[in-house]
Structure formats: structure tokens, C-alpha cells
Amino acid sequence: MRCPFCGHLETQVVETRDSDEGDSIRRRRKCHHCDKRFTTYERAEIELPAIVKRDGRRTDYDRAKLKGSMMIALRKRPVSAEALEGAIESIEARLRQSGEKEVDSTLLGEWVMRELRKLDKVAYVRFASVYRSFDDVSEFVAAIKETGKAAGKKSEG
Question: What's the Rg (C-alpha) of the chain?
Fold first, then answer.
């Protein structure tokens, strides 16, 4: 492993442990040349389906892009990083379970909205307003009412 500080090729693993989620291995390394320490993560590479955009373009699934869009919706909302990671893991599990080589972005967007609705109703409405391209206030109000109905069903059961 190349040292990120000096570029030297000889580094030593000082400590190894599983990540909290159990899906990766965290390694502390030390460079033999500059003596600096750094952390690396080892994760199994699992091929996820390509995403087919509305205009027909195909793009590789990008976890960082998904997380970024969800974080925008969750901005200044009381949702933990762990809860967000759990939602992303749930979406990725759906992608893997689909067994498809390609998944429509509209389906992915629906999965994101479902997870955001569980995490935070305000974040859900924020995301839905952009994702569904609301043209007027009535569509926005309908989305808010929809979250109220979902909350009512939860409290009844």
C-alpha cells in the first residue's frame, strides 16, 4: 500500500479490526519511510446494477451521489449518520436483490423516498418536491398530506 503522505511503497499494518457494520475491515498502517500513520478500509466489491436515467443514458451506481442527495434532503434535520447509512444499506440491498443488470432511476428514486419517509417526513417532502418536479403548491400539499396518511396508519397499527 502506497503511503498517502510521501508515496513510499513500504507500509506496515499495525492494527486490524472489523468495522462497526461488519462489512469492511479497518487497517491502521505505518509508513516505513516517513513514520506517519493512516487508516485504510477493505470492503468486498459487489457489482451493483447500472442506473438507467430518464433520458435513456446509463450510468454506474454511485453510493456517494446517492448519499449526497439524501444528505441535502436531510440537511438540518435530526437524523443520525448511522440512520442514514442504514437507509443507504437498505437501498443497496434492494439493488442487489433485484438481480437485474440495470435499474430505472425512477425505481431507485422511489426506494430513496421510501427510506427518507421512514427517517424524516420533512426530508421526504424535500426530496419528493425535487424528484417529482412539483409544478405548483397543490402538488406540494398533496405530498405533505400523503406523509400524514402514512403517519396515521403507523399510529393506528
Answer: 20
Q: Which three cell numbers stand for residue 78?
A: 435530526
pLDDT tens-digit map of 28-55: 999 999 999 999 888 776 788 999 998 9
3-state DSSP of the chain: CCCCCCCCCCEEEEEEEECCCCCEEEEEEEECCCCCEEEEEEECCCCCCEEECCCCCEECCCHHHHHHHHHHHCCCCCCCHHHHHHHHHHHHHHHHHHCCCEEEHHHHHHHHHHHHHHHCHHHHHHHHHHHCCCCCHHHHHHHHHHHHHHHHHHHHC
Give mean pLDDT, residues 78-82: 91
C-alpha cell at 18: 472489523
Contact assessment for residue 133 and residue 118, using Cβ atoms and an 8 Å cutoff: no
The distance of Cα 98 from the centroid of its chain, to the nearest Å, equals: 17
Amino acid at 19: S
Residues 6+ apart with CB under 8 A from 50: 58, 59, 60, 61, 101, 102, 103
